[in-house]
Amino acid sequence: MTQQVKALVAMAKNEPAVVTTINVPDPGKGEALVKVLTCGVCQTDHHYIEGGVGDNFPYLLGHESTGMVEAVGEDVTNVAPGDLVILNWRAVCGECRACKRGDLKYCFNTHNASQKMTLEDGTELEAALGIGSFAEKTLVAAGQCTKIEAELSEDQYAAVGLLGCGVTAGLGAVLNTGELKRGESVAVIGCGGVGVAAIAGAKLGGATTIIAVDIDNDKLSRAKELGATHTVNSKDQDPIEAIRELTGGFGADLVIDAVGIKDTFQQAFYARDLAGRVVLVGVPAPGTSWDIPLDEVFGRGGSIKSAWYGDTLPSRDFPMFVDQYKLGRLPLDAFVTERIKLEDVNEAFETMKTGKVLRSVVEL
User: Fold this and answer.
1) Domain named Enoyl reductase (ER): which ranges (predicted)?
2) Pick from 52, 183, 189, 273: CA 20 to 30 A from residue 123's CA?
3) 260-291 confidence digits (pLDDT tens)
4) Sign of dihedral through CA atoms 88, 91, 96, 99?
5) b vs e for 187-202, b when ≥16 Cβ sit within 10 Å of the residue's Cβ?
6) How many CB atoms lie within 10 A of CB 43?
């Protein structure tokens, strides 16, 4: 039986998303119907509106969510009705070449629901990142549901749901991709939501020197609150020289580029110590490039990596992050700047551009 629910849909490129009624089918084989509790407003959703992800309009937006499983289809064993879950966009297939070699976090064929949700007239919807959770209910592959056993209050759902995307991307860039070791130094260039999550991850992982770099003093203040030991305004100081000065003249052991433009990547490359690591987690615009001198690559050693979802395996990492949150070691509440309604999302997209919020979170 199909259910009708309220949802936020991008009908056409560069037009405001609209709150409308959609049809959500009962779950089929391997699928789960989820009652959405919270959904964060992420830059990725706005990329869909701009046509930056594709042109398969209409798009059902939303993906950073907590929810309650309402029903499951045939052969679903990982979750059951009544389970509290965080939705994720890496439902591993178990069959691709990455999975077969044991690298499930790199699964190249992640699962989404087989059935499509639709507009009232039957037009099929493309769900953002295969989730589409700016909706009262959504249909996903069961593997996109990560069960959370920890006891949480309703007020905590909004914070925990942000693990579904941006916060985990930053945490994972440091802890997984960057392979932070206790006592190392970390510099994070770009202190938006992903960047400050990387700073929180550096603190959680035991870094001793944590340097936040940005051109906005308000963002740097926020980075300080979330664990930065030093801040650098790169409008006023050369960030490469500043990072070296703060690390004994050597450079940081690990540098995170959370912006993804030529200038910041170049800064990250040169601000690391010999044999240091660079991790790119900021998403570059198509065609972004920099001519890297190969003698410098060879001479500096170390590694240059990109972080895919923070190299996160949701079934492993989400429960661990929730446990760290419950222990008071991971300040997820600080990422929730405001709580809003579904009708407020377009305004939240505009607020997001100002950099004054980490996350607006829709509570359904």
Assistant:
1) 17-362
2) 52
3) 999 999 999 999 999 999 999 998 988 999 99
4) positive
5) bbbbbbbbbbbbbbbb
6) 16
Contacts of 320 (CB under 8 A, 6+ apart): none
Residue 177 DSSP one-character state? I
What is the rounded CA–CA span in Å between residue 324 and residue 331?
Answer: 9
Please report where in the chains the tokens 């409308």 appear, as a residue: 20
pTM (whole model) above 0.85: yes
Q: Edge-to-edge, what's the strand order for the sheet holding 18-24?
A: 118-119, 18-24, 3-10, 59-60, 126-127
Residue with structure tokens 């589409």?
Answer: 132
pLDDT tens readout for residues 301-328: 999 999 999 999 999 999 999 999 999 9
CATH of residue 217's domain is 3.40.50.720
**Is 353's pLDDT higher than 90?**
no
User: Number of structural domains, the chain?
Assistant: 2
* Confidence label for 356 from pLDDT (cuts 50, 70 and 90): confident
Q: At what angle do helices 345-354 and 43-50 cross, to 10 degrees?
A: 110
- Taking only the tens place, the pLDDT of each residue in 124-153 is 999 999 999 999 999 999 999 999 999 999
Which residues on neighbouring strands pair with residue 280, listed in sequence order? 257, 306
Q: State the residue for tokens 């603190």.
A: 203
Q: Do 263 and 343 belong together in one domain?
A: no
208-253 pLDDT, tens digit each: 999 999 999 999 999 999 999 999 999 999 999 999 999 999 999 9
Full residue range of the structural domain in which residue 219 is found: 170-307
CATH number reported for the structural domain that contains residue 13 in this entry: 3.90.180.10
Structure tokens at 320: 């661990």
Q: Which of 140, 196, 187, 169 is nearest to 337 (CA)?
A: 196
Beta-sheet strands, E only, within 206-313: 209-214, 230-233, 252-257, 272-280, 303-306
